[in-house]
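Running this now, will post back.
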Amino acid sequence: KSNLGVKYKWGGTSPKGFDCSGLVQYSFGRAGKTLPRTSVEMYSKGTRVTKLQPGDLMFFSQNKATRPSHVAIYIGNGQMIQSASSKGVSISSTSNSYWKPRYIGAKRF
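Update: finished.
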């Protein structure tokens, strides 16, 4: 949450600007966990979960494809933190009308 408001930057991996997977990789790194760089690589690792807990990664894809194009961190109470091109680092509802239909699964690391 300390990076809320940081602008979106494609390929960004620092508080100067994050893309979605850059924010996730950076945040987990600060907690001592090493994750792959891209949402596709992240989705191929970890343990698949159906009951979300804070810290789980949520994956999204255009047209319900099997390869994710977006990743966010579940923070509890039906909310996720993400770096989205429209808002930068922000908190959104998991039932948001844009993201909910694009959800393809979650992983725990």
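The two ends are 19 Å apart (CA to CA). More later if anyone needs it.
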